[in-house]
Structure formats: structure tokens, C-alpha cells
Please model this.
Amino acid sequence: MKITNAVNILKDESGATAIEYGLIAGLVSVVCITALQLVGGTLDALFRKIDTDLQEAMNQ
Model:
């Protein structure tokens, strides 16, 4: 009886699956943060140009 329980515990992979999902979520988070940082500089430059153009248009 005890040997059967030990074998079942060793064959249980539900913990490994949870760890794999955690690693995938972590990797997706790192990719999203990196992408947002790369795009953030471009968006900042775009909004600054729009702001400058609007201010010039209002001063004319």
C-alpha cells in the first residue's frame, strides 16, 4: 500500500505543469515589457512632434 502511494506521488506531474505555466507567464511578461520600452521612445518622440506642431500652429 505504501509503495503504491510513493509511486503515485513520483508520477504526479501537476506541480511541474504549474511551474511550466509560471515560466511561460514570466517570459511573456519580459517580452511585453521589452516591447513597450522599445515602442515607448518612438511614441514619446511622436507626441513631442505633435505638441510642437500644435504650438506652432496656434502661434501663427
About this structure: The first helix runs from residue 2 to 11. DSSP finds two helices and no strands in the chain.
